[in-house]
Amino acid sequence: MVSCADIIAFSARDASCILSGGKVDFEVPSGRRDGTFSNASEPVKFLVPPTSNLSDLVDSFVVKGLDVEDLVILSGAHTIGRSHCSAFVPDRLNVTSDIDGGLAAFLRGQCPADAAPGGNDPTVMQDVVTPNDLDKQYYNNVLSRTVLFTSDAALLTSEETARMVMDNANIPGWWEDRFEKAMVKMAGIEVKTGDQGQIRKNCRAIN
């Protein structure tokens, strides 16, 4: 029997494989059980905002058993998808030392200065080079200062994480291999097994 928690983990695995053209391909252990309590505000406490500095990012990962390398590797998922303007307005609309002038100008043309959730809040691609591919382009974007979030640019603010960014950008297969391992590690955070929780009959509600 497959739980709802397993379905989510398997979906992340399959999406990674498809979007990477098979370059990211890993096995995820099954056997998770579903929780019996859900609170929409609970996960938000552990999601750091895209305006975070490196120290806050590291702290948020460590509390969940992940390390600095996991942070850098999993940030690579920002190579795909779209973001609402409110996630980075107004921080990224002006030219600063950590954002390319061309990107700032592009974002000013796409995003209203008063972008806010629930209001006038368009979306933009996170990676304009290979927007539909799960690949290592994100790290090239970090190096060229063409990333959307302050938290992405923060990876260059320490020698350790900057070196990791360069390795992921320059060494073939380096990021894909580590992304697979980091995804498996993340999928094992606070997993319920044995007699814990339940296997839901309807993923939208407890039994």
Automatic annotation (TrEMBL):
CC cofactor note: Binds 1 heme b (iron(II)-protoporphyrin IX) group per subunit.
Pfam family, one: peroxidase
Cofactor annotation: heme b; Ca(2+)
Plant heme peroxidase family profile domain mapped to chain residues: 1-207
Positions with a binding annotation for heme b: H78
SUPFAM superfamilies (UniProt xref): Heme-dependent peroxidases
Top EC class, one word: oxidoreductase
Cystine pairings recorded for this chain: C4-C203, C85-C111
Reaction(s) this enzyme catalyzes, per UniProt: 2 a phenolic donor + H2O2 = 2 a phenolic radical donor + 2 H2O
Alphabetized GO MF terms: heme binding; lactoperoxidase activity; metal ion binding
Binding residue positions for Ca(2+): T79, D127, T130, D135
GO terms under biological process: hydrogen peroxide catabolic process; response to oxidative stress
InterPro entries hit by this protein: Haem_peroxidase, Haem_peroxidase_sf, Peroxidase_pln, Peroxidases_heam-ligand_BS
The EC number(s) this enzyme carries: 1.11.1.7
Domain of life: Eukaryota
Keywords, ordered alphabetically: Calcium, Disulfide bond, Glycoprotein, Heme, Hydrogen peroxide, Iron, Metal-binding, Oxidoreductase, Peroxidase
Annotated family: Belongs to the peroxidase family. Ascorbate peroxidase subfamily.
Name of the molecule in the record: peroxidase
